[in-house]
Design a protein that fits this description.
The complex is a heterodimer of chains A (274) and B (738). Chain A is of the alpha+beta class and 274 residues long. Chain A has helices at residues 9-19, 30-37, 71-76, 78-83, 85-93, 97-102, 105-111, 119-124, 142-145, 216-222, 229-242, 253-272; strands spanning 2-5, 23-24, 43-46, 56-59, 62-66, 128-133, 136-141, 146-148, 151-152, 159-166, 172-179, 190-197, 200-206, 213-214. A 5-stranded antiparallel β-sheet of chain A has the order 4-5-10-6-7. A 4-stranded antiparallel β-sheet of chain A has the order 11-12-13-14. In chain A, a hairpin with a 2-residue loop joins strand 8 (146-148) and strand 9 (151-152). Chain B folds into 3 domains: 7-117 and 181-259, Alpha-Beta Complex (Aldehyde Oxidoreductase, domain 3), CATH 3.90.1170; 275-445 and 581-737, Aldehyde Oxidoreductase, domain 4, CATH 3.30.365; 451-570, Aldehyde Oxidoreductase, domain 4 (2-Layer Sandwich). Chain B is built from 19 helices and 27 strands. The chains are: A alpha+beta (274), B alpha+beta (738).
Amino acid sequence: MEIIKAKNLKDALKLRTEKKFPILAGGTDILVQMRASRNFPKGMICISGVRELKKISLKNNKIEIGAGATHSEVALNKLVQKYLPALTDACKTVGARQIQNRGTIGGNVMNASPAGDTLPVLLAFDAEVVLQSVRGKRIVPFTKFYKGYRSIDARSDEILTAIIIKKPAPKTHAVFMKIGTRRAQAISKVCACFVRAGDKFAIAYGSVAATPVRCKRVEEFLNGKKISAAIVAEALELLNEDIQPIEDIRSSAEYRSHVSKVLLDRFQRILATF
Amino acid sequence: MVRRIDAIEKVTGAAIYAEDIFLPDMIYAVPLFAPHPHAKIISIDTAKAKVVRGVVGIFTASDVPGELRTGGVVQDHYIFAKDVTRYSGDVVAMIAAETLEAAREARDKVDIKFEPLPALFSPVDAMKPGAPKIHPERENNICCHYPVRHGDTDAGFKKSDKIIEREYKTQHVEHAYLEPEGCVAIANADGSVTVRGGMQHPFTAQKFTARATGLPVNKVQIIQTTLGGGFGGKDDTISIICARAAIITLKTKRPVKIIYTREESVRESYKRHPFHVKFKAGVTKDGKLQALEANIVADAGAYCSTSPFVIWRPTVQCTGPYIYPNVKCDSYAVYTNNTFTGAMRGFGSPQINFAIESFIDELAAEINADPIEFRRKNFFTQGCTTHTGQKFDNHKVAIAEVVNAALEKFDWNEKFGKCSRGAPDANGNYYGIGMACSYRGVSLGHEGKDFCAAIIKITPDAKVELEVGVAENCQGLKTVMANICAKELGVEVEKIIYKDVDTLSVPDSCPTVASRGTLVGGNAVIDAVRQIKEKMAPVAKNIGAHSSFEDIVSACHSMNIELHALGTWQGPPVSWEETTGQGNAYFTYVYGCQVVELEVEGKSGKVRVKKMLGAHDMGKAINPEMAKGQIFGGMVMGMGFGLKEEIIHKEGVIQNLNFDKYRIVTSAEVPEMEALIVENRDPAGPWGAKALGEPVNELMGGAIANALYYATGVRFRETPIKAETIRTALSLRRSISD
């Protein structure tokens, strides 16, 4: 297999068009998948040395996270810690330290696993993904990016270069929660991100459907309401309409459905302390 | 503190494992597995695979020069599946090539045509009359049966005020050693073969390899490389892999390397037997046990392996450390088309003790007795007679002692009163503690001959070469042997040059299993040292009282006194009567108690283990730090058995072949731990030492189940006790007081 190390973004985009090879960032998902399927491409374009893709910045009220930033780099970033602590928490629960040091946030997005830990956070914050090719740049809202199970709106010559999140308004409260089999090296049974900004809510779950999902019914029900245990108890009834968990080797559909409710209820308790 | 003699090479990466061996002209071989767990093989088409660049050869059952079938107890295990596959880990062929990549590419191109046969995935189905036979040469699918008949259980039940019946089930467990199976085989110019590899017992590998190649045993040399973990799992499978490597090297005349991937290892290698235990016990109002009926059915999988011994031990220990005057026990291992099962740390005891210790607490609850007082009323006592008719008068019966020590150190009485007992706290969480205790036969007992040898050779420059017939399994055996040798000889441990087991040098010393390494090896070393000292004594006397070890050695050599000795140890006599299950099963016993404190998050069913404590009578701790390490490691492994680990078969095919889906406990969940060393020296052991490796791994499952009961009020009778199960049960829960 030919591994071509891209020198910079321009080089990477050119290689992507010319060679059509898949992108290798941290390799924590794609290498495992290749080994399991024994389906090896002729070559890969390695972008782990492209520094432009590691930048995390705040411009015009938008936080832009380079797709090549590793989970550790995102988790340790001061801007992210200040404005998106839920994303910090999510990055800290991916695999374990070794995986966090290799795996990138862009890789988490492009791998498109419904269990990707950072995805509910990005979804709940209405993130946008920046896709680039030699033809130009395209910005796709996160809510439109996942089209089905492991199916994404990206073209064969494109590279994910950044994720953009609007700087949250003051008094935005957000939390990330995860249920796994153990404290490290555990793929989520359920993960979720809950956001309250003023009297508006954003709620996103992972591992409970073919893609990460926004819980529109629950959000609409909660929007404008003063949150209480009783209100959330009502909202829990709607949650089942927003998620479609399945049984797999990690857990049962019944358990996922149950703990999804537990997490929403826990969010309500946390909000009460703010 | 004693330093492990192999510590530096391991932590610096200098230790040589099988994978580290590279020889000129070496080829690589990979296994091709059964396409279906039970199928008739119609044809194996290798045409497309053979032409892959770099392929050297493809080997199947027809290439086996010696016996195709092998096994330690019953020879029913096919080295290569021929005509029929019996489980999904059966190997149909090995593909050898210049590179690993070429071997794997060729493997993908072998075309096996097969016809599925009716398959059996549960022992219950396999035991039904008329079930298809997995081994046609046998009468039925029952691999082995052990009965015990002691007293009259009917009379015992008549005397009882309460008769209680319960059932418990356990799961397939993977050993999860760090190093998957690996070896390198070399055909020597004289027609013999040398295999270096990571096996627990080089002599099993030697026997299996000789049998499969048709070579005499002395033409098969097995040298153990640094072993990356065993836990009982590096016996049958690695020995078969050594045999396959030997077959390939003898045919190709090139060194052959086989290193399994994790998936290959988990797919082919044996697991811990799942047990289905049924208990019926009679007890009087005042808490005296009267009778026990036990029925144990274990899933043996496709091949016998060590099943008869793994079933026999829990038969001997089916009462736990409690006196039942009347006992009837029947234990079976049954063939199925699941992955075969064999030795794993505990050897049947983690399963049976999970059942016994859960049951004892259930009995106590049924008669409204305190579980500890109830145990104390029925404990084995000094001089008591067990259900196999063995009188316990040759060793200290220390069950009450270890339990008292453990509970006192744990503040049991205070904490027991705080258990939630089904009533959650304000946050919906539950708190509980639980304990389990056991007695355990030391070494092999009536399983087989019990022998060990050690060779000591002192060189003219006063270095002590030591070779012992039992093997380093990462448990620290070399360090213990070297320390016993040094201390007995009166020299510094740095003088000992430890030689790894070579089957052409030291005599076969029976497997390094059954927690016997320290006891049997230590005794053989002491015997060898005694002989050396006898040779040195007159010389020392001649040259004067203040002469150094070096001076005496030098004098011996100049006087032609060879400082060379073969030390041996023979196990004390044991006995067993097969039809009634009566006899002195083991020559001595150990006692242990483990306690656990945990919290259950009511809403998610997640369990957080807060503290574990183990108190074990090991006779004598030769190296207390390593002994504590054994206790800690055993408890953590037991925690995985109780709460997390499970090999999941779907129609005979394992669904979790790697550690992303087979989840062992990580360091992030390991709680605070404490180890209590209890020492009642045993006349049979070196310096009084008995056994520790397995006793520490047989109690945590039961302790956790009991703690979960005192926390949630729900009794869980099946391992692993997963968050999903707990959550579901809690939603249907009734508190203990209801």
